[in-house]
Amino acid sequence: MKLTLHTDYALRTLIYLGIHTDRLVSIREVAQVYGISENHLVKIIHRLGLGGFIETARGRNGGLKLARPASEIGIGDVVRYTEEDLGLVTCMQPEQAAAGHCCILSDVCRLRGVLGEALASFMTVLDHYTLEGMITPDERRRLGGREAGQAGNLSASDLKPAG
Amino acid sequence: MKLTLHTDYALRTLIYLGIHTDRLVSIREVAQVYGISENHLVKIIHRLGLGGFIETARGRNGGLKLARPASEIGIGDVVRYTEEDLGLVTCMQPEQAAAGHCCILSDVCRLRGVLGEALASFMTVLDHYTLEGMITPDERRRLGGREAGQAGNLSASDLKPAG
DNA sequence: ATAAAAGGTGTAGAAATTATACATCTTACG
DNA sequence: CGTAAGATGTATAATTTCTACACCTTTTAT
């Protein structure tokens, strides 16, 4: 059991945006800072936009920013949204649950209830935290003074031109 | 985020064994009842044996049984054992955590702590239940009177001979 | 108006994980 | 000894996840 990189990246992107609320941040910047695939990040960020977590601006000087203050973005909400498949066992997959015939244990299967309860508990913990809580002074220091290679070993002008 | 089929099957097998405590159950029987691959189940069951959850007996009239009463087998323990990889994000993978340099968020990353707490909460819920709690009278009725095709649509003698 | 910068979208393929099948060995019982 | 049942290892198939590439759309600066 683990969260997908999808969720991992989404959370990190949000944290980064939460630190840089004074300006728009480009996808490329986020990808470079964390050393992850820009192409992959594009899709994750797009989804975050659809989900209303961030606002995007196209065109020159465009970029990303949080749609709401970090204090109003719940970690649980992000995970719930990013992690599409929260059915823990085959019993809980929508198709099967809908059809009513999951495993032979069927609807009297307590397993489903217990796992569901555990999952709810998991989410409840996450719901107690907001993005703001993820941003410590230490991190702000680490990722905050970035402009010219504080965060990584690259300067803003090092970004490859286009092709 | 979801548990592997591995865990799913392991739990179901244990439930089945918990219902049939009066005799040894063969792997083939479990596989047929749930309609899952016998070959796959073999390995899962082997691991359950290594983990001390069940006892196996080889040879003619061999089979499986719970190593302890169902009331002493915690669901959390089973999941913890079966689900090897409980690191929720790359931050938490042992290799990386050990090396101390996970993501650039590094050790001041609160994310890790929060996800860890959520996971602990998840497991705590599971720890409140034992295998015994998973076995309801309904299920016992459903899987209990099996001998000749109550559970599936097969009789004990329908099991394919060998090759 | 045009060019450049940045996000949006779709597809294809690589890599990793998970599940299944097959073959063979070991053990226990009769 | 022969058979039934678990133990083990390997190989293949299926699925999921990740990456790369190509091209489109929108916005802004000149």
Automatic annotation (TrEMBL), chains A, B:
Top-level division of the source organism's lineage: Bacteria
Record InterPro entries: Tscrpt_reg_Rrf2 (IPR000944), WH-like_DNA-bd_sf (IPR036388), WH_DNA-bd_sf (IPR036390)
UniProt xrefs under SUPFAM superfamilies: Winged helix' DNA-binding domain
Keyword set, alphabetical order: DNA-binding
GO CC list: cytosol
GO molecular function terms noted in the UniProt entry: DNA binding; DNA-binding transcription factor activity
Residues annotated as transmembrane: none
PANTHER family according to UniProt: HTH-TYPE TRANSCRIPTIONAL REPRESSOR NSRR, WINGED HELIX-TURN-HELIX TRANSCRIPTIONAL REGULATOR, RRF2 FAMILY
Designated name of the protein: Rrf2 family transcriptional regulator
